[in-house]
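Take a minute with the sequence and fold tokens given here and flag any structure token that looks odd. Thanks in advance.
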Amino acid sequence: MQIREWNISNKQNLVTMINANENYEHIWQTVLAIPAGKVASYGQVADLAGLPGRARLVGRCMAYAPKAMQVPWYRVLRSNGQLAFEAGSKASIKQTRLLQEEGVPVINNRVRMDEYRWQPGLDEILFKLDF
């Protein structure tokens, strides 16, 4: 009886892991679609990836992006335009540098979302976000 319960539990965990991997791929594809010089919020990425309400998953997912994919993690910010990292930290400095190289000014650890937010058109949503 215990072995059977263990197998059922492991099957459920495997299904959860497979779903998480699919979700991560959707998130990475969405972030890859953000053009240089534009930014998106964690919530916006979650919505466009078909995962409404999963903004925290987007943040967690960025840490696991394969280096070979070159996912532009630095283009994803908090909804108010603030960088997710503490001002002055190594990660914040790196994110600021990468955004500024793309022409996105970062002032007081924040980007003006009204000016630099990515607003994908219907064609981008239908053809670039392939899932």
